């Protein structure tokens, strides 16, 4: 597993808990608004963290941190992810996974083994329309399989969508909320134009107004248990 980043203390990444965030390198999506470009681009991080180094750091935080968030990139691309999480769980930490949902087999394996305490899945657009702007290949079936697995897992969870054109409009929102109906939490995230993977993309496309975001929230609240707006800072 290639670890490209480590946030040693976060108050916002695991709801209600103090946690560290481990960022894996590599992603199979090319979202132009991604803020973690250094974890997506070919070549890998200039100074990756050794897995043992990260585990050693976490051992020093036992009793001081509640949780570890594994984010990316896309963590589920790494075949040794379960081994890493097992070692984290053995230290007594809660584990939250951030995923794009493209690897349902890995996701279900982690949940079935009891390695996850919280799952957050990003849904970028209509699952039938990821290609070509977000993905190099279709992945509708995988995304729907991951959503279903999360909804039926019994785990605390959330789904998230970054709201920017041309990916999100009212019709797309209706599709997404229909797919995640009954979800515990759905977060609509305001687009932040700073430090994006493909800034030139937004010479043509732009974010969605705060007023429209509030309208989207009202629509989503009819299908999910709770919907929140996360505004860019």
TrEMBL record:
Any Pfam family the entry gives: Radical_SAM
PROSITE patterns, per the entry: CYTC (PS51007), RADICAL_SAM (PS51918)
InterPro entries named in the record: Aldolase_TIM (IPR013785), Cyt_c-like_dom (IPR009056), NrdG2 (IPR012840), Organic_radical-activating (IPR034457), rSAM (IPR007197), rSAM_sf (IPR058240)
Keywords tagged on the record: 4Fe-4S, Heme, Iron, Iron-sulfur, Metal-binding, S-adenosyl-L-methionine
Residue intervals of the Radical SAM core domain: 13-226
Matching CDD domains: Radical_SAM
Cofactor(s) annotated in UniProt: [4Fe-4S] cluster
KW Iron (keyword) present: yes
Domain Cytochrome c: 14-126
GO molecular function, one term: heme binding
Family annotation (NCBIfam families): NrdG2
Name this polypeptide is given: Anaerobic ribonucleoside-triphosphate reductase activating protein
Taxonomic placement: Bacteria, Pseudomonadati, Thermodesulfobacteriota, Desulfobacteria, Desulfobacterales
